[in-house]
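Reviewers of the previous submission asked for a worked example of the structure-prediction workflow described in the proposal, so we include one complete record here. The input consisted solely of the amino acid sequence. No template or homolog information was supplied to the procedure at any stage.
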Amino acid sequence: MPLLAGYQIDFINAVCNPDNTQTWTYSVTKIDTPKPEISNWALILCSDPMHIVLDSSGPLGSTVVVGQGQPCLVTFSNTIKWENLSNDNVDGIYTFKLQGCFQPETLQNSVAVKAGPECYFGELTVPSCKPLNPPITPIRGIAFK
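From that input alone, the workflow returned the following structure tokens.
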């Protein structure tokens, strides 16, 4: 739950869906009126195996860039970034859906906020590179005597 440049970013949950996808949900709340204003924020994603983002959402006016699109996290080859943000539209819920299900992991410098010319880094729960074990499906229709 880092507070970065006046913006509180919280991991809400990661839900493994029946179709072998996983929905990750975060919230962002501005505290008071931060200056300089946020322009974007990003999370690191795994590159081996490569996390594949199938869908994403954010507040009205925001756009999402997947891949190496965050100048603060330029050393990582896979990121998800929400951009076109300001104090007017930053508050809200942010989601993305991954192909497959992965264990949550809290990592240092896994989230970055770009406000003005500066980058601010924090520790947050993100998808690890470790897939969750597939659910066990009971075998039906077998009769034992």
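The chain has no helices and ten strands. We consider this example representative of the routine output the project will generate in years two and three.
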